[in-house]
Each structure stands twice: as structure tokens, then as C-alpha cells.
């Protein structure tokens, strides 16, 4: 049974500070950031890892094994406060062992002859010198979900040799919503550092794709720059415009000084002469009182 309890990181324990690589201090000092929390989880027991390996016929990579022996999963979130409204923004997550499940290779629907993931994959992609061969949904590879990315895709632990799978064949890949694969790192440790240093910003995994992050995500990237900040992520095309937010203006105080309204000029009563002369109001131009030029 997993133990989980939310914890505010402002008063975190030493092991939580090590787990987050000290990123909490950067977040808490950023403008508008609030509610930086982490869900504490007890370390996994060794027999849980052994059971997972036997069940899936895979050897867990050593760095991932050590991670689970420290905490059975990871979930850290933070929010921003805009106009008195708190908006959840950053999310960093690693599934627990019980949720480290293999991507479903059976029919996607409970219907006969329904397509499988293997039927839907694109075979036109070929490996290049700077890009390894993409994973396959069939028996050639074994794929496990590490993070659902809040519905923006899936970060996966991929064994490239099928079953039985050795730890040396494991890599970390990103599967986008269109079922295209994008290579992230060779090891879990390298991926975990990417996860932390990108602050869990929305859609940060798309920075490692050929089409990059969305314009909305670029706005958040420009405000809360990742530690591994790459200026290429915010490069704007000549025919596009991205509204860059200024934190000093977004989060400034709402207490504005009151400006007295200007009173309009009082119009004198029409047609009456004042004590100093005739009225300045113009005569009407109705049919009984025509206006003539020169009069």
C-alpha cells in the first residue's frame, strides 16, 4: 500500500530537498509562484521491484531501481496567482511501481477486429545518424509509461530488445498525442534532471520535438525560464507573434491611486442674457428662426 501525503516545501525535510535538487528555492523566489508542494511517498521495498521484474520479464535499470528505493514515485506541483486566482501550472511526476505498466498492446476498444497500437504506428520514419531507431508497439520493444504528462503525451521507459529485456537496452522516449516518438535520454537519471530543470512547465517535452512547444507554452517559458534554458525555444518566426508577459507588470499591486474625474463645463440656460452680456448659446436653426450667413 502506497503512503502519500502532500507537503509544503517551504518547511521540507532534508531528503525532500535532495530529491528536488534544490529547485524549490528557485520556484519560491519567482514572481507569482505559490503552493509549491510535493506528495511524500514511502520508499519501495525490494520485493516490489523483484515482483515487477518477474512479472514483466524485464530487468529494471539500476538508476531507476535506486530512485524507487528512495521514493515509490514522485509528484511535485506549483501554481501561479493571477488576479487573485490560483492557476495550477508546473507538474513533475514519475509513476509509482504499481503504475509502471506496459502500454496496452491489445485492442484499443472492446470490439472485435479493432485496431491496435501496432496497426496505427507510422512505418515511414527511419533512423538517422543523429537519431536512434524509434520504438515499435509490437514484440520488438517493451514499453512502460513513466508519466502521462497531463494528457499532452507519454514519457516512456523503452526496452529496445524485447523480452527478456536487459537494463542496458533501456531508453527514455516521449510519445506525443499523434503517436510519434521522440528520443529524450539514454538513462533515467538524465531524464530526471531534465524533468527538474525544466520546472515541470506545461508541454516542456515538446522542446525536444521537431515542432517545438506551443505559443501558449512559450509565454510561460519566457516568464519562468528553465535552468537548462535554451534561447532557441523562444525563437519567433517572422510571420508569427508571441505575446511575452512581463512578470513585473503581471504581478504588480492592484492598489491604484484614485484619479478624480473631471467635471464637464456647465452649459448656461439657452437664450437668456447674463449680467455681462448676451448669451453665448447658438440660435436654433428651425423653420421659424433661420440662420443666415453674415448675420
Automatic annotation (TrEMBL):
Residues 251-295 are annotated as: Disordered. Residues 275-295 have a biased composition (Low complexity). Residues 251-264 have a biased composition (Basic residues). SMART domains: SMI1_KNR4. It comes from the Eukaryota. Residues 43-186 form the Knr4/Smi1-like domain. It holds the Pfam family SMI1_KNR4. This is Tubulin polyglutamylase complex subunit 2.
Amino acid at each position: 500500500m502506497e503512503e502519500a501525503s502532500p507537503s509544503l516545501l517551504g518547511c521540507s525535510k532534508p531528503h525532500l530537498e535532495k530529491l528536488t535538487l534544490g529547485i524549490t528555492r528557485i520556484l519560491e523566489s519567482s514572481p507569482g509562484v505559490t503552493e509549491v508542494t510535493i506528495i511524500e511517498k514511502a520508499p519501495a521495498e525490494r520485493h516490489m521491484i523483484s515482483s515487477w521484474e518477474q512479472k514483466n520479464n524485464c530487468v529494471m535499470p539500476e538508476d531507476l531501481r535506486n530512485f524507487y528505493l528512495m521514493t515509490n514515485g514522485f509528484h511535485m506541483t506549483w501554481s501561479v496567482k493571477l488576479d487573485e486566482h490560483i492557476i495550477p501550472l508546473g507538474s513533475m511526476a514519475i509513476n509509482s511501481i504499481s503504475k509502471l505498466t506496459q502500454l496496452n498492446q491489445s485492442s484499443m476498444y472492446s470490439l472485435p477486429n479493432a485496431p491496435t497500437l501496432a496497426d496505427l504506428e507510422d512505418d515511414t520514419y527511419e533512423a538517422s545518424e543523429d537519431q536512434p531507431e524509434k520504438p515499435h508497439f509490437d514484440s520488438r520493444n517493451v514499453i512502460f509509461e513513466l508519466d502521462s504528462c497531463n494528457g499532452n503525451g507519454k514519457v516512456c521507459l523503452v526496452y529496445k530488445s524485447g523480452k527478456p529485456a536487459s537494463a542496458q537496452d533501456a531508453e527514455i522516449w516521449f510519445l506525443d498525442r499523434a503517436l510519434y516518438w521522440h528520443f529524450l535520454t539514454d538513462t533515467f537519471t538524465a531524464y530526471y534532471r531534465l524533468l527538474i530543470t525544466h520546472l515541470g512547465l506545461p508541454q516542456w517535452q515538446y522542446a525536444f520535438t521537431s515542432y517545438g512547444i506551443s505559443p501558449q507554452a512559450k509565454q510561460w517559458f519566457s516568464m519562468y525560464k528553465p535552468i537548462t534554458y535554451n534561447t532557441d525555444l523562444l525563437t519567433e518566426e517572422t510571420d508569427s507573434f508571441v505575446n511575452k508577459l512581463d512578470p513585473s507588470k503581471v504581478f504588480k499591486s492592484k492598489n491604484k491611486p484614485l484619479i478624480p474625474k473631471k467635471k464637464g463645463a456647465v452649459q448656461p440656460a439657452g437664450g437668456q442674457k447674463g449680467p455681462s452680456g448676451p448669451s453665448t448659446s447658438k440660435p436654433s436653426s428651425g423653420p421659424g428662426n433661420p440662420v443666415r450667413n453674415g448675420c
